[in-house]
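Subject: Protein record for review, amino acid sequence with backbone structure tokens
How to read it: Take the token row as a discrete description of the fold.
Enclosed: The protein record, placed directly beneath this head.
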Amino acid sequence: MQGDQKAVQHNYATPQNLAEAAQEIQQLISQLAQTYPTNTEIEKQTFVAQVDAEIKKNSRLRSILITGGIELIKVLCPPLGIPIEMGKKWLETANLSD
């Protein structure tokens, strides 16, 4: 048998990890809400910009939000679950062939 063998490892978050992630996100939002009030439209825009900046700086937080967003879409619209999983698998195999 010739050829390269490649494996894909799936790491799914446990409920405890999801709870910890949710707590981390809530702490970040609470922290920013204390620093950046949201009483006016300008203040709300500033707050959103700061949340966006924090997400861009923190790759773990960004990954949590992406995963959570994908799972939310799958719950709200179950028929999209199949194409989402197909796309994820395609990306995984594309990354392996690079």
About this structure: The longest helix spans residues 15-35. The mean pLDDT is 78.
